[in-house]
Design a protein that fits this description.
It is a single chain. The protein has 15 helices and 16 strands. The chain is α/β, with parallel strands linked by helices and 433 residues long. The protein has 2 domains: 4-62 and 357-412, Urease, subunit C, domain 1 (Roll), CATH 2.30.40.10; 63-349, Metal-dependent hydrolases (TIM Barrel, Alpha-Beta Barrel). The structure holds nickel (II) ion. Residues 67, 69, 214, 250, 302 line the site of nickel (II) ion.
């Protein structure tokens, strides 16, 4: 007998081509999958091992954070208000040199606790000692797509990293009941020369996994790329053949019209990180144009060291507000589009289309529930707009991943938060002194 769960709520956000709010709906979950979503039917309570009734609640797909460096939560508030290269060279990289394996585990756990509380059920991560990040995902129950961060400026280190990245694939891909998937993570064109990227590409094809890379994040990166190779970052990636593979490209802030065309043609997935790009003064990605051309743009927080939180509601709001202000056009990136970026597009960007990011029969039961009994959810003219422009992460009272409840009534069920806070503080202090 499969374990069946029944979830009822006053509102369920389903999405079949267009968003649809099911009033007085219910969802049946068997093991990790949604087997029914729709209006309430006659049911026998004894057929279910768990019944959750969300009165004045809304159920929607969990958020998908398409780009972060989870363990960097340990550096939150350590170095702020600096330019990217100054921040990396003089603060982050020296502190990272002191990282030990277990630091990654606790830093990732801290990030997962924050993400679950904010309704994130799946994230794409790129960092070091990723076995430890995988262990944190396995234990906490969250879904993740992990990549070992690779740099190729030093040949020996580059090859060792590629070996480590490949063994992460072999050891962890599709583990945790399929919750954990793995990509290869060449850091960026400015830390991975073309011949190295070629090797990564061959390995990714060989292992049949996608590639997660930072691309065209700052104006300085574009300038350096042009002077070194006579090409912009996206043109260079196209020339190498990287974009013929499944690629998740983070940032894509500084793009020419030609690069936008290339990304659209190659169907490259993009992780848009408005909060981090703003805080590091990197600029703003041409999201409205990318979406118009049909590029799958998901949302990411980047790390808590450059954001400084992992709150997808905040990213979603920024993604909707920024282009309106910049283009002096309130009709671009409407609420519906922002919501789609945080869920469905996120799934596309992680190559998990139709599995997560959407509530429908046959999809994984990765969902969150909002308590709508709050002043900022009244009046109920447009709940979809409320989710983007009014909701707060504290409104989320239930989080489920792969059919398992990970947060209920504001309590994390798989994470000992007190221990996580203690370990994170202890380790973070050691790293910066
Ligand atoms: Ni990043």
């Amino acid at each position: 007998m499969p374990k069946k769960k029944l979830l009822q709520a006053d509102y369920i956000l389903a999405w079949d081509n267009a968003p649809e709010i099911i009033s007085q709906g219910e969802i049946v979950i068997e093991d990790s999958l949604i087997t029914y979503i729709g209006p309430r039917l006659e049911r026998r309570e004894k057929d279910f091992e768990e019944i959750i009734k969300g009165r004045d609640n809304l159920i929607m797909p969990g958020f998908i954070n398409t780009h972060t460096h989870a363990a960097m939560s340990l550096f939150r508030g350590y170095a702020d208000d600096m330019a990217l290269m100054d921040w990396l060279n003089n603060k982050i990289w020296p502190a990272e040199a002191k990282l030990r394996k277990e630091d990654i585990y606790w830093g990732t756990m801290l990030a997962i606790a924050e993400m679950l509380r904010g309704g994130t059920t799946c994230f794409a991560d790129m960092y070091f000692h990723m076995d430890e990040a995988a262990r944190a995902c396995l234990e906490s129950g969250i879904r993740a797509s992990l990549a070992q961060g690779l740099t190729g400026l030093d040949k020996i280190k580059g090859m060792a990293g590629l070996k480590e990245g490949s063994s992460l694939v072999r050891n962890w891909h599709n583990k945790g009941d399929g919750r954990i998937t793995v990509m290869l993570g060449p850091h960026a064109p400015y830390t991975c020369p073309p011949d190295y990227l070629q090797k990564v590409l061959e390995k990714a094809a060989d292992l049949d996994v996608p590639i997660h890379i930072h691309l065209a994040e700052t104006r300085a990166e574009v300038k350096e790329c042009l002077s070194k190779y006579g090409k912009t970052p996206v043109e260079l990636m196209e020339e190498i053949g990287l974009l013929d593979h499944r690629v998740l490209a983070a940032h894509c802030v500084h793009l020419t019209e030609k690069e936008i065309e290339i990304l659209a043609e190659k169907e490259t997935a993009i992780a848009h990180n408005p909060g981090s790009n703003l805080k590091l003064g990197s600029g703003t990605a041409p999201v409205a144009k990318l979406l118009e051309k049909g590029v799958p743009v998901g949302l990411g927080t980047d790390s808590a060291a450059s954001n400084n939180n992992l709150d997808m509601l905040e990213e979603m709001r920024l993604a909707a507000l920024l282009p309106k202000g910049l283009l002096e056009n309130p009709t671009v990136v409407p609420a519906e589009t922002a919501l789609k970026m945080a869920t469905i597009n996120g799934a596309d960007a992680l190559f998990l289309s139709n599995e997560v990011g959407i509530l429908k029969k046959g999809a994984k039961a990765d969902l969150i529930m909002f308590n709508l009994n709050q002043p900022h959810f009244y009046p109920r003219h447009n709940i979809l707009a409320h989710l983007v422009y009014s909701a707060r992460s504290a409104d989320i009272n239930l989080v489920m991943v792969n059919g398992t409840v990970l947060m209920s009534d504001g309590e994390l069920l798989t994470i000992d938060e007190e221990r996580v806070f203690f370990e994170a503080q202890l380790r973070a202090t050691r790293l910066v002194y």
